[in-house]
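[Q] Does anyone have a clean structure-token version of this?
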Amino acid sequence: MTFGVLGDLNWWAVLVAIVAYFALGGLWFSNLLFAKPWIRATGAEMAGGVNPGPSYYIGPLITCSVATVATAMLAHATGTDTFAEGLVLGIVVGLGISAAVLFVTGFFDPQKARPMLWVAITAGYHLVGLTLVAVILALWT
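[A] Here you go.
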């Protein structure tokens, strides 16, 4: 695989997958789902009424974009073009790379109040998000 594959990607599918991954994060880390346990796991509480700055959203948008493009390159290289193949690719990338890296990060982070809860919530988001990304990319070839 070379970076020349970037010219072969379906950039509309990549864009939709980025938006879906980022939006899932907005839902995942909201009060509707895992915001409270995730914040408790970090050991830091946000003061009431404090609104985070733009970097709070720009950073995750950039990382969702990078992970989506990388997954698109892998989907192209592996010929992933069915729902089932998208599921497999998403699970491999989400669990085999993202969750594994987050586990090590959480395991050795003495600053987190409950590091394994943090890992479970954060890695769960990336597993579901990258699987969503891979399925979108696979179906929209």
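[Q] Thanks! Anything notable?
[A] The chain is about 70% helix and 0% strand.
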